[in-house]
Amino acid sequence: MKGIGVSGGIGIGKILLVEEHSLEYTPKQVSDTAAEKARFADAVEQFCANTREQAEALKKTAGEKEAEIMLGHISLVQDPFLLGEVDKLIGGGQCAEASFETMCDMFIQIFSAADDDVTKQRAADVRDVKTGVLSILLGIKEVKLSDVPEGTIICVKELTPSMIAEIKKENVAGILTETGSTTSHSAILARVLEIPAVMSAPDIMKTAQNGEQAVIDGNKGDVILSPDEAQLKAYTEKREKLMQERRELEKFRGKPTVSADGTVYELVCNIGKPEDAAKALEFDGEGVGLFRTEFLFMDKTSVPSEEEQFSEYKKAAMILKGKPLIIRTLDIGGDKDIPYLGLAKEDNPFMGFRAIRYCLKNRDLFRIQLRAILRASAFGNISIMFPLITCVEEVREGKALVEELKAELASEGIEFDRDIKVGIMTETAASGIIADMLAKESDFFSIGTNDLTGYTMAADRGNSDVSYLYSALQPSVLRMIRSIILAARQEGIPVGMCGEAAADPMMIPLLISFGLTEFSVSAPSVLRVRKCISGWTKERADEVAEKVMQLETVQEVKDYLGSVIL
Ligand code: PEP
Ligand code: MG
Question: What distance, in Å, lies between the first and last C-alpha atoms of the chain?
């Protein structure tokens, strides 16, 4: 069976089906509305007290930030509008249960209809609050998960943060649910507590039996009920290996990213949504090196307004609290289509009207995005990055527009970072060849190896027939990378890499040798990359790079690097 793996690791244990208590009741009319209001107020107070206790518990097991999830429930239940409306309903003669449930259901409906995950998550929070308060009103003892025996796989329809708050991590081998996904609060908590978890496993409450042995793979989302001997053995071994690796990596949490001879690097993350900034921090990233803004556009049916974009960029900046945030301007075309923009069908979209080319020709759209980014820059450490640069004119034109918009905002009295940095992605062969010229025009470079490999090798990144050519370890691509880094160093500007290659253990010694200053990787790779960097001195990396740069085929490069990587 397959669900969504939301918290990594292998869980092996016995299923405990946690059935929800029925919260059914017969709605009554009340005549003593004052007494009913008092009964409701008591229940809310009791709920807040319970929740505060759970938050305290979470603070110890997970941390301050995670405890805030529970404290958020208190703010929810104390929302003046909600309380005011419940008060009116009770005043009209409805019982407290029905009044509160009506209002909660209204919020749940509104939040569930939203198309962003964060607002959807609010619906789950309201459901959690509703269950908590109704259970108190109905005198039902909520399911207690604090006493489950060791090696339990908790199986529940919907896992709420309050359930997680009660869990004793050492007794829970895994979590299995019928609803929920990666971004739900419970999933975040499961990750922080390092409990393997699979969510949205279809009908699991019906399929699984109490006490049945089960294996879950929190990375892949696999669920095996009643595994056979061989499966059990294979997964036990896998679990041991993963746990060992994790223990090793955890030593690097909260530490700076530094090589064996003391050079400090910046290790940041690639994100696609503002909320991913929180994920970047959760995985110990030091900021964001690439915010791919096209996802904000893809989720919509028309171009998001300046206000909408501003609020999204500001959200990411606020989450990062002064840590770097590099926002890449719209990179559509190629493999990324946005239907409502009505891009013409092209014979060769990767070489066509895309990214910076499209934006410079569609000034209104570009202005909206740049104004939104500039306005958000008042709230954090934001930089602007242009994609797919091939010539100096593109950088100059883009920067001129940024200057024009700065003047416009200043005349409107709107705050922005006057020293905002404007950098470029070096991801085309042209940009690699004229990197020296581009370095004079840019505040920083970020090497996009995903495209750079494709454009250098003339090999489409999605075409399996030419995939044997598509490797960032090709001698040609390595030379391209080296010359881009050298050009940046000569001009004294920072140079990062945000393509997938930045997290490749084979690539890392070469990047250290060439002089890369920033690695931007997917959040789950952060600790692994930090560990890898910590194993190299510049001297040893130089020896390796010198040898590699003499090798003539990609296979030789891979074989050699394979023999020397740590
Ligand atoms: C790249 O090309 O390496 C890159 C990081 O950008 P994207 O993958 O979004 O094209
Ligand atoms: Mg790219």
Answer: 36
Q: Select which of 95, 185, 269, 359 is catalytic.
A: 185
Nearest to 527 by CA among 511, 548, 503: 503
User: Residues 221, 293: one domain?
Assistant: no
Question: Residue 250 domain-assigned?
Answer: no
Burial of 357 (0-12, 13-18, 19+ CB in 10 A): middle
Query: Under a CB-based contact definition with an 8 Å cutoff, are residues 466 and 460 in contact?
Result: yes
Does pTM surpass 0.85?
no
For ligand 1, pick from 295, 298, 450 the residue to mutate: most ligand atoms within 8 Å of CB: 450
Q: What is the pLDDT of residue 22?
A: 81
Same domain, 429 and 474: yes
- pLDDT of the residue at 210: 92
From 95, 104, 359, 498, the catalytic residue:
498
Q: Is the dihedral of CA 501, 502, 504, 505 positive or negative?
A: positive
Are the CB atoms for 384 and 370 separated by under 8 Å?
yes
Domain that holds residue 416: 257-565
Report residue 422 CA to chain centroid gap: 24
pLDDT at residue 483 above 90?
A: yes
What digits encode the pLDDT tens for the residues 274-305? 989 998 999 999 999 999 999 899 878 899 99
> What's the longest Cα–Cα distance across the chain?
90
Count of beta carbons in the 10 Å neighbourhood of residue 207? 15
185 is catalytic: yes
CB 103 within 8 A of CB 85: yes
In a domain, 397, yes or no: yes
Check whether 59 has a pLDDT greater than 90: no
Q: Whose CA is nearest to atom 9 of ligand 1?
A: 292
Q: Is residue 428 part of a domain?
A: yes
